[in-house]
Q: What sequence folds into this?
């Protein structure tokens, strides 16, 4: 749910703030944002495509008074030079400086979003925009706003449904921290690709410089409120079979202080990816680890060297299998819990959802079964030892003892599932859209249909009717 109100209602709160604002803005040189004068940009070959296309550039903003005015002015100049019918919308996300006033003076419309977070601000801006296309970017001077027409061109030609500005080719140690460039962004991009079953072929999933059709994104029912909004948009767009591409853009050093928290925002991204696709991060890895454990036990049982020979391959295989056999089932069960959590919180469609009581019952039954099997295995080992029988060789006994130990651990954990059940029962967030099977299918079909069949005039009519309903 979006909470907005006109800037005129909030202007008084900015009076008297930062009396030396003009001096501060002067220090943030215009060259940090503007690299090429509009007169030097030539779009003659594509002018017929740009003419009449309505575009809104959405800037989420939190205390960006040093750069927001420059970004607004540059975006408006670039769109005018390209022949676009463009406007700029700044979503103030609780700024305590003069960001909102400066944005208005530069020519932007400003709305407020009370709910904190990057995703909440962007959702508000996309909903409030009244154009066919939306370009989202940060108001800190990092993105190459001159590239707005290049992002829009593949949309106008029908090549892509969403275009990202790829930053990594131009990023340096001054513009992007080493940890983000070589670890954070590549890892999250890899997980996003896996969550979409490798349907995406992109390098920079965390780029906040994107162009898309407004109605397509609204049809996806995005719900994230933080930085993980970027990953959710890509994953849900892939589920809707939207074509996503990239164009290389420049990336500059930001003006002002960064709002990004490396570890907390990274964890939010991982959480979002796991909730949207628990199969990628939990269910499938857990199943593979369990299967590998049984293969290692089988190999160890056939080994000529027994467990007593320290350093033998049999000894190593048994130890590795013991670890994997505990982690694998628990990670698999975590994936089941994550899927239930995502369905009950509205992040995934509840297709064949299992009631919480049935889920707990299944955990109890699996835990009890493993405890019984472990007890039988322990009995076999005791009989083989005390009666000096030869029906179990040393290698088989070693593998069996490793299995018994793991089965006892996993069985005990699963049988205490009722103790963790209160953490699974949570009420959905009332301010976020809820997913449902039929609704999601209809929305995804709508998103795809808009990209394939709708003309510009049709989409404008949809925008107008949506605005009338909201009014």
A:
């Amino acid at each position: 749910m979006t909470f907005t109100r006109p800037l005129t209602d909030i202007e008084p709160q900015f009076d008297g703030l930062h009396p030396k604002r003009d001096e501060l803005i002067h220090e943030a040189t215009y060259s940090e944002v503007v690299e090429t004068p509009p007169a030097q940009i030539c779009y003659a070959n594509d002018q017929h495509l740009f003419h009449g296309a309505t575009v809104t550039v959405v800037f989420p903003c939190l205390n960006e008074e040093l750069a927001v005015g420059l970004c607004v002015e540059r975006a408006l100049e670039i769109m005018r030079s390209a022949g676009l019918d463009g406007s700029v919308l700044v979503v103030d996300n609780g700024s305590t400086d003069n960001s909102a006033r400066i944005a208005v003076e530069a020519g932007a419309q400003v709305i407020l979003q009370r709910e904190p977070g990057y995703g909440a601000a962007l959702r508000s801006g996309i909903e409030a925009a009244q154009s066919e296309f939306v370009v989202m970017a940060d108001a800190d001077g990092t993105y190459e706003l001159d590239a707005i027409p290049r992002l829009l061109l593949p949309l106008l030609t029908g090549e892509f449904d969403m275009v990202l500005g790829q930053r990594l080719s131009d990023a340096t140690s001054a513009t992007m921290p080493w940890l983000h460039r070589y670890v954070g962004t590549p890892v999250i991009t890899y997980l996003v690709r896996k969550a979409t079953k490798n349907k995406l072929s992109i390098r920079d999933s965390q780029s906040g410089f994107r162009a898309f059709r407004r109605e397509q994104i609204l049809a996806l029912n995005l719900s994230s409120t933080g930085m993980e909004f970027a990953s959710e948009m890509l994953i849900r767009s892939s589920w809707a079979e939207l074509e996503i591409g990239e164009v290389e853009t420049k990336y500059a050093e930001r003006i002002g202080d960064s709002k990004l928290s490396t570890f907390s925002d990274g964890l939010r991204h991982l959480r979002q990816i796991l909730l949207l696709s628990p199969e990628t991060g939990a269910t499938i890895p857990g199943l593979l680890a369990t299967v590998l454990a049984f293969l290692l036990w089988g190999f160890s049982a056939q080994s000529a060297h027994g467990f007593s020979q320290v350093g033998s391959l049999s000894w190593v295989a048994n130890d590795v299998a013991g670890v994997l056999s505990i982690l694998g089932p628990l990670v698999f069960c975590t994936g089941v819990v994550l899927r239930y959590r995502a369905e009950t919180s509205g992040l995934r469609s509840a297709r064949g959802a299992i009631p919480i009581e049935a889920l707990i019952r299944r955990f109890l039954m699996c835990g009890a079964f493993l405890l019984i099997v472990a007890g039988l295995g322990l009995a076999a080992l005791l009989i083989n030892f005390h009666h000096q029988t030869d029906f179990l060789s040393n290698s088989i006994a070693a593998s069996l003892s490793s299995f018994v130990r793991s089965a006892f651990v996993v069985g005990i954990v699963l049988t205490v599932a009722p103790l963790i059940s209160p953490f699974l029962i949570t009420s959905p967030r009332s301010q976020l859209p809820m997913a449902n099977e039929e609704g999601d299918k209809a929305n995804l079909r709508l998103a795809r249909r808009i990209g394939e069949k709708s003309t510009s005039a049709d989409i404008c009519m949809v925008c107008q009717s949506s605005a009338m309903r909201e009014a």
Q: What stands out?
A: Residues 313-344 form the longest helix (32 residues).
